[in-house]
Structure formats: structure tokens, C-alpha cells
């Protein structure tokens, strides 16, 4: 029936009728799909269709009318106007298809990650999967965009000639591009290596360039580290395969923190050790694993006392260290002020001089 209708209007001189028919057909298809999807979502127990609708609704509603108009225009009378319109809607169809496929990738990522709890305390497995999915998604997006651009280019006669020329000179071009883009290629290969060997993962606590922070983004060519004071440190992705750096959460999130105090020799170490244990018992950030206080060094006027304590992750360890340091100093100021370092002067030796 639709084919007969298209044939009846094909004799009209201006193809606007064909555009209207294609647009109406696309709107009807979108409407039927929307109703069917709504009914299916109500019956289904999974959130997958809801996620697909969230990410792909707009792209699908654009793709279907464009595709319908392109199909109907092919039944129009062969004129210069119709050929221009067909070429135009072919390009729009390619762009709409690329947009739709990219949205599908985002939906698939969301559906996959919906099965994992990223916010739980021990989320090393989830962060590993998140890193791989995030990288692969970006690779596929680049591939889809390049294929779409190539299809648009090949839709023109001049583009086909250019493509044939490129094929005949592929050997020379590959060498030239290899030298010109070797840095970009090395970054891309480093990204693949990081995605699967994973010296870093999303939300890893790292120390790079003397700064401490968390891995916020892993892109195709660079990594964004969110520093503790909310600044962002941007590093080329090759940095993490070529230079040494500290990863505090490589295999597990637990970490030991330290508090260093420079105290007088009159400090009652046993009382200080007991106070440390008392403080840790009341600290919500302490995981109950490690507690220790030792004299690690001695100097002319002071001794170095190191307190060790453990926490479930680096942010909690940082807060724990700061809290314990404050409470130990307050204890010494109030109960043992003689423990605070002082500068001694030998008066007798000065008088003899």
C-alpha cells in the first residue's frame, strides 16, 4: 500500500511530497516503537530497556525519519533536485547512524556497569572493569567516527577518486604518517597496555610528580589525576608506562599511615604509646589492624618518634594521621610539656670562655 502511494506521487515535479511522506512514516514508526517499548518496560523486571531508552531515544527518533525520507526519495523522479536531496539525506543518514551507534555504546556501558557496585569499599574489581570498558568505549567511538567520515567521503565521486589515490600510495603514506604521528600512536598503544595490564585504574590513589591524588580519567592519550586540593594534573598516558610512580591502591585499598614527631629525650615513650592506643580505639577511620609507636632516630637535641596506624583507604588514612597527630601533640602539651623539643645551652661552658 505504501509503495503504491509512493508511485502515485512520484510524478509530481517537486520532491517535497516525498519528504513529507518519509517524515510521516518515520514519526509513525517512532510512535509505534515508543508505545511497544513502554509496554515492554512495564512488564520487564530489568532496567536494561530503561537505560537504552535514556541514552538512545533522541538518536533513534532522529535516525528513523532521516532513514525513511532517504528511502522514499529514491522513488522520486530523477531530477537534479532529487539527486541533491538524496545525496544530502544520505550524508544526514550516515551522521545520524554514527550518533545512534555512539549512544548505543554509552547505553551498553551503563547497562554493564549497572551490574557492579562502584561505591562499595573494596571496589578493586569494579574499578578494573570500569577502566577497561571506558577505554574500549573510546576506541570504538573513534573507529565509528572514522568509518562514518570515510563513508561520507566515499559518497562523492571526488572522494572515491581520492580514496583510490590513497590506496595506491598507501605504502608511502603509511611511512610518512608513522613518523608524523609516532607520538600519538605510542600514546594509543600505551592506553591499550594500561587498559589490560592496569598499572593504574579509575579512582586509584597515586603519587605523581610529587603530588598525591586520585585517577579521575583515563583517556586515549592522557590521564587526569585529581589532586587532594581539587586541582587537576594532566599527564600523557605514556607517563605511566615509562616513568616510576606510586600507586597506593594497586592490589588493595588498605594503607598504613605514619605520624612523625620530633620530641625531647625526657618524653615518656610508654605513656605516649598507651595514649596512641587509646586514641586509635576511638578513631572511626582506624581499621583495627596496625598500631605501633617506635623511636626511629636520635639527634643532638631530639629523638624521632614514629606512630604507625592503618586504614581502609588513602583518604581515611590521611584523616586518621591528621587526627592522631593533633591529639598526640595536645596530650604532650597538657600532660608532658617537657617532652616538647627545646634548645639547650650549656651556661657553664659559656662562662668559662
Automatic annotation (TrEMBL):
It is found in: Membrane. The chain crosses the membrane at residues 12-37, 58-76, 88-106, 135-156, 162-181. The keyword Methyltransferase does not apply. Residues 184-250 form the Mechanosensitive ion channel MscS domain. InterPro entries: LSM_dom_sf, MscS_beta-dom_sf, MscS_channel_2nd. Keywords: Membrane, Transmembrane, Transmembrane helix. It comes from the Bacteria. This is Mechanosensitive ion channel family protein. It comes from Marinoscillum luteum.
Amino acid at each position: 500500500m505504501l509503495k503504491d502511494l509512493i508511485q502515485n506521487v512520484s510524478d509530481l515535479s517537486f520532491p517535497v511530497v516525498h519528504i513529507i511522506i518519509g517524515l510521516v512514516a518515520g514519526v509513525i514508526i517512532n510512535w509505534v516503537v515508543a508505545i511497544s517499548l513502554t509496554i515492554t518496560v512495564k512488564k520487564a523486571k530489568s532496567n536494561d530497556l530503561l537505560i537504552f531508552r535514556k541514552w538512545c531515544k533522541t538518536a533513534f527518533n532522529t535516525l528513523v525519519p532521516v532513514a525513511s525520507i532517504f528511502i522514499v526519495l529514491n522513488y522520486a523522479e530523477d531530477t537534479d533536485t532529487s539527486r541533491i536531496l538524496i545525496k544530502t539525506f544520505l550524508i544526514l543518514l550516515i551522521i545520524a547512524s554514527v550518533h545512534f551507534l555512539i549512544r548505543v555504546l554509552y547505553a551498553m556501558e551503563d547497562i554493564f556497569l549497572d551490574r557492579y557496585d562502584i561505591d562499595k569499599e573494596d571496589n578493586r574489581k569494579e574499578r578494573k572493569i570500569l577502566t577497561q570498558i571506558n577505554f574500549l568505549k573510546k576506541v570504538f567511538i573513534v573507529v565509528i567516527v572514522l568509518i562514518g567520515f570515510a563513508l561520507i567521503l566515499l559518497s562523492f565521486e571526488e572522494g572515491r577518486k581520492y580514496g583510490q589515490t590513497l590506496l595506491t600510495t598507501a605504502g608511502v603514506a603509511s611511512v610518512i604518517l608513522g613518523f608524523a604521528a609516532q607520538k600519538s600512536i605510542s600514546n594509543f598503544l600505551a592506553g591499550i597496555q594500561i587498559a589490560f595490564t592496569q598499572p593504574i585504574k579509575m579512582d586509584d590513589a597515586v603519587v605523581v610528580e610529587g603530588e598525591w591524588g586520585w585517577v579521575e580519567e583515563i583517556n586515549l592519550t592522557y590521564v587526569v589525576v585529581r589532586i587532594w586540593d581539587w586541582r587537576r594534573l594532566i599527564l600523557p598516558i605514556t607517563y605511566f608506562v615509562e616513568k616510576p610512580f606510586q600507586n597506593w591502591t594497586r592490589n588493595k585499598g588498605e594503607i598504613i599511615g605514619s605520624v612523625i614527631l620530633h620530641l625531647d629525650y625526657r618524653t615518656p615513650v610508654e605513656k605516649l604509646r598507651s595514649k596512641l592506643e587509646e586514641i586509635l580505639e576511638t578513631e572511626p577511620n582506624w581499621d583495627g589492624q596496625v598500631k605501633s609507636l617506635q623511636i626511629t632516630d636520635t639527634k643532638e637535641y631530639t629523638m624521632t618518634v614514629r606512630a604507625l596506624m592503618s586504614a581502609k583507604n588513602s583518604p581515611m588514612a590521611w584523616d586518621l594521621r591528621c587526627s592522631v597527630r593533633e591529639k598526640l601533640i595536645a596530650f604532650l602539651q597538657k600532660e608532658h610539656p617537657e617532652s616538647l623539643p627545646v634548645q639547650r645551652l650549656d651556661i657553664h661552658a659559656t662562662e668559662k670562655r
